[in-house]
Write a structure and sequence with these properties.
Layout: E1 5-9, H1 14-25, E2 29-34, E3 49-53, H2 59-66, E4 71-74, H3 87-106, E5 111-115, H4 128-141, E6 149-155, E7 158-159, H5 166-175, E8 179-183, E9 188-189, E10 192-193, H6 194-205, E11 214-217, E12 223-224, H7 225-236, E13 241-245, H8 247-262, H9 266-273, H10 284-289, H11 306-329
Parallel strand pairs: 1-2, 1-4, 2-3, 4-5, 5-6, 6-11, 7-10, 8-13
Antiparallel strand pairs: 9-12
Helix pairs in contact: 1-6, 2-3, 3-4, 5-7
Bound molecules: NADP nicotinamide-adenine-dinucleotide phosphate.
């Protein structure tokens, strides 16, 4: 199968940016569909990249931009849903793959990669996030026997510059001066590097034998939530007393966060006071996702460890801030 033009939904996000730059380096033409193309103009410095504006949930617009493409990669995903009843998760994770597969059929596109998440299981997963991801995945895999080659990727938490994991914790540590409560402190993760995720996706994109596969992706080591928080603080060179929050309190905190978020203007105001507040929000659905460890079997592990990469963006940022503060003190620009 000739694959030289690939359309990527959600391609301007954290994983998408890495994937697009690796595809560009291989001379693949990528068309990113984004709701806000103007925010991602930096990607246009890459060769063979175009960014078009569309709401991917609008079938006609989606279909219009799939015309002429050889493959599609769906990276659209949300961690929080303001509706609280899961309808936002369903729209993004379950309904969108249904539209996408119809649009692929219309344009005779025979290769589709879907980004899901480790532990996604429509029957048993405790959160809307995990269940709806699985529903989308299951729907697509019906078509792997019907002429469209489908491969799904199921990573644990993904790290790398610009991630919403270590960066989120470093923001959190800044606003918890002395004592830092840690919800689900024993929950374990196998963080996987964004570059390894992108490499795996590209390798499978060109491999017809990947049709029908659901590929779990994990990093080489596992860590508890508590260990991750302690590691982040150590990289930032700050001291905090970490306390494992009992589950009842974690859940109460998550309910409070959802309640605050449901009051109009609270989230925009908090975002204004604490930039990135919304992304650092800990919802009830996040809490439920943390009820299961996010780890794979050894056979699914990727090579890069957090210790190889995370210090470069977490400690550097902190060192830069210290340096800026010092420059302010001596009044040098
Ligand atoms: N990061 C992780 O640790 C992790 C772990 C496991 C699985 N995943 C999955 O990997 C995928 C990529 O994650 P990421 O970290 O790169 O996320 P991201 O940076 O938030 O990018 C996802 C992109 O999806 C688009 N999007 C979000 N909500 C949408 C909506 N309601 N309708 C239409 N488009 C929407 C956005 O594109 P525009 O704003 O440009 O329209 C966004 O840039 C997601 O499916 C996620 O669930 C991520």
């Amino acid at each position: 199968m000739n694959i030289s033009k690939v359309c990527i939904l959600g391609g301007a996000g954290f994983v998408g940016s890495t994937l697009v730059s690796k595809l560009a380096a291989r001379g693949i033409h990528t068309r990113i569909i984004s709701r806000h193309p103007e925010r991602h103009r930096n990607l246009l410095v890459l060769p063979n990249v175009e960014i078009v504006e569309a709401d991917v949930n609008d079938f006609n617009r989606l279909s219009y931009y799939l015309h002429g493409m050889h493959a599609v990669i769906n990276l659209v995903g949300i961690l929080n849903d303001n509706s609280l009843d899961g309808s936002g998760f369903r729209k993004a994770h379950t309904e969108l793959p249904k539209l996408l597969v119809q649009a692929c059929q219309k344009h005779n596109i025979k290769r589709l990669l879907q980004m899901s998440v480790l532990n996604a299981d429509a029957g048993t997963s405790p959160s809307h996030y995990l269940r709806t991801k699985s529903e989308g995945e299951n729907h697509l895999h019906i078509f792997s026997d019907k002429g469209i080659q489908i491969t799904t990727f199921r990573p644990s938490i993904i790290f790398g510059p610009g991630d919403n994991f270590f960066n989120r914790f470093s923001k959190l540590l800044k606003v918890t001066p002395l004592i830092c409560p840690v919800p689900r402190a024993n929950c374990r993760f196998a963080p996987v590097y964004v570059g390894d995720v992108a490499d795996s996706m590209i390798e499978h994109l060109f491999n017809p034998a990947s049709n029908g596969l659901r590929i779990d992706l994990c990093g080489p080591n596992t860590y508890s939530m508590m260990e991750i928080m302690q590691y982040t603080a150590s990289l930032m060179g700050i001291k905090r007393k970490f306390i494992a929050l009992p589950d009842r309190l974690s859940l109460a905190m998550a309910h409070m966060s959802d309640f605050a978020n449901s009051i109009p203007l609270v989230t925009p105001m908090m975002n204004w006071l604490i930039p990135g507040f919304e992304k650092a929000r800990f919802s009830v659905d996040n809490y439920r996702s943390l009820l299961v460890d996010s780890v794979c079997n050894d056979s699914d592990t990727q090579k890069t460890a957090i210790e190889d990469i995370v210090p470069m963006y977490i400690s550097q940022k902190h060192n830069q801030r210290q340096y800026d503060a010092f420059r302010n003190i001596v009044r040098r620009d």
